[in-house]
Structure formats: C-alpha cells, structure tokens
Amino acid sequence: MGNFSPGMGADCLGRIETKPLHSNSQVMTSINISLPELMKVFVEEQVAQGDYNSASEYVQELISQDQKRKAQERLEGLIIEGLDSGEPIEVTDEWWEQKRTQLMDSLRSREE
Fold first, then answer.
1. Which end of the chain is least crowded, N or C, by CB within 10 Å?
2. pLDDT at 26
3. Distance in angstroms (rounded) separating the CA atoms of residues 63 and 36
C-alpha cells in the first residue's frame, strides 16, 4: 500500500504507478491513497492483529467483498425482474427438451 502520510495532498489521490507487482500469479499495480489519520491507524491495527499481512491485502479484501456484494445485488435484481416478467410456468424435463429442440432448429435455420 505504501505511504499513508496525513500530509499527502490531493494530487496523489487515484494516481496509479506503473511498476508491476506479482501476487498469486496476477500482475499487480499499485495505487497511492490518502486516508485520515484515524483510518490509517485502523488499517494498521488490522494488519497488526495478524488478520492481514499488509495494508494492501486488507484493502484488496475490502474491494473483493464489495465486488461480491454488488454481484449479489445484481443477481437479486435479475431474479426479481424475472419473477415480475410474466405468468410463471412449470419447467419440467419435457419443457427443457422442447426448448433445446427449438434452439437447435433456430441455429440450423441460421446456418442455411
């Protein structure tokens, strides 16, 4: 994560450095962020407790959790959209076979 100096100016917010880092077979880049002193202390405490090996690892975990939360929200939205899309139908093995046949026929007609 690098330096968390309280005196860092706004010019360092969101600046992405070009030096690549390697972690878990992924090419990593670094970014400098500014935090209020209390947040900096909190992050350092999380690392000191042994839950994380570095401030970078802590921030990566927070971002990963946020990505999962947003993906879950999107999935829930799509499920609700599907439920609101019309009258429910019973989906049986026969229904899937009929749907498969229709799709295969549609693909064949496109190829002709």
1. C
2. 79
3. 19
Q: How far apart are CA 101 and CA 97, in angstroms?
A: 6
Query: CA–CA separation, 6 vs 68, rounded Å?
Result: 31
What does the pLDDT look like over 33-57, one tens digit per residue? 999 999 999 999 999 999 899 999 9
For residue 6, give the nearest of 36, 26, 51, 28 by alpha carbon.
Answer: 36
Count the Cβ atoms, other than its own, within 10 Å of residue 35: 16
Cross-strand pairs, 31: 16
Determine which of 19-28, 43-52, 61-70 has the lowest per-residue pLDDT on average. Answer: 19-28
The whole-model pTM stands at 0.58
